[in-house]
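Hi everyone,

Forwarding the result from last night's run.
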Amino acid sequence: MAATNSDHNQTDAAIKDVRISRISSSIRVIPDFPKPGIMFQDITTMLLDPVAFKDTIDLFVERYREKNISVVAGVEARGFIFGPPIALALGAKFVPIRKPNKLPGEVISEEYSLEYGTDIMEMHVGAVQKGERVLVIDDLIATGGTLVAAIKLLERVGADVVECACVIELADLKGRDRLGDKPLFVLVSSTC
């Protein structure tokens, strides 16, 4: 008996659920780090599990394979872990978006607000061209400040930011709301 589209979709959903579950269970939560009250989401344990790490990359690649992404922009520092393998699989270039004074050569900068003060994100001038379709990747979205800064940097040079993607979302902090009309795709949602 041949499988129907419905059967196929249910099988795909079950496979994805298994992968998401494996990814989620491979992330270690460290209480009170780096300060009391913070539940730190440690992805290094996921990186030690080659199956969970591969599942993570595969899920992102499957989502973006048909979206004509020409640039994967990774946000410092953990976006550098996930961005390059995704970019390679998509046939896109990888562009690092970094903290100040980390990139040699001419940069474009975007200042953004933190809970207490400000910070800056930078990108090489000429790394992204007008009209290029960009995926912004990071390991986690909390308040959304770094992703907003990355989006602004990319849009200032005329890029089309297609979507932001993170392994983990701290949903309680409502960072998603700061992204405006930019879609956000996450694999694991967590609480603070």
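The longest strand covers residues 160-170.

Cheers,
N.
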